[in-house]
Amino acid sequence: MTGTQREREDLLQELIDRLISLMRKVRHDITPSEPVLSQPQLHLLFTIALKKNGVSVSELAELTGVTPGAVTQFVNALVERDLVARESDPNDRRIVRLRVTPTARRQMEKMRREYITAAARTFDELSLDDLRILNEILSRLNVPLDKEHAQKGEERADGPR
Q1: In what helix (H) or strand (E) does residue 98 lie, and over which residues does it extend?
Q2: What are the sequence ranges of the domains in the chain?
Q3: Is residue 139 within 8 Å of residue 119, measured between CB atoms?
Q4: pLDDT above 70 for 149
Q5: What is the pTM (predicted TM-score) of this model?
Q6: Which architecture characterizes domain 3-151 according to CATH?
Q7: Residues 118/26, Cβ–Cβ less than 8 Å
């Protein structure tokens, strides 16, 4: 391995460590206004929200790497809180599709605002120009991810932009 390759690896490791640390700080600074959902519940909720046409339990299990039985338990809790609705698939009545409810959309928007408020405190030392530059750099890395989500029929969890 050349010195340049080693330096690149070291810088990438440092960048990963800093990004993880930043995200932890932002999460720590959030003051939730709603009862907190567990990480698995949040993950399932946002995964469901990404699917324009809803998602079946088996599809959700496959997407998240969680067993169908565990997905069903988590979804039951989300249904009880009026965050997820079960609907018949219009093309196949035997299939039940999961969709986020308007209540969930409102709570997700609240969570997004709380997250932005916490992020604003974390990134307060950066100027508007610094934020633009950082956003541009990270956007270049996310272009393939955006294309991948579009090909899978997904949208952003907080809606299309």
Answers
A1: strand 96-100
A2: 3-151
A3: no
A4: no
A5: 0.67
A6: Orthogonal Bundle (1.10)
A7: yes
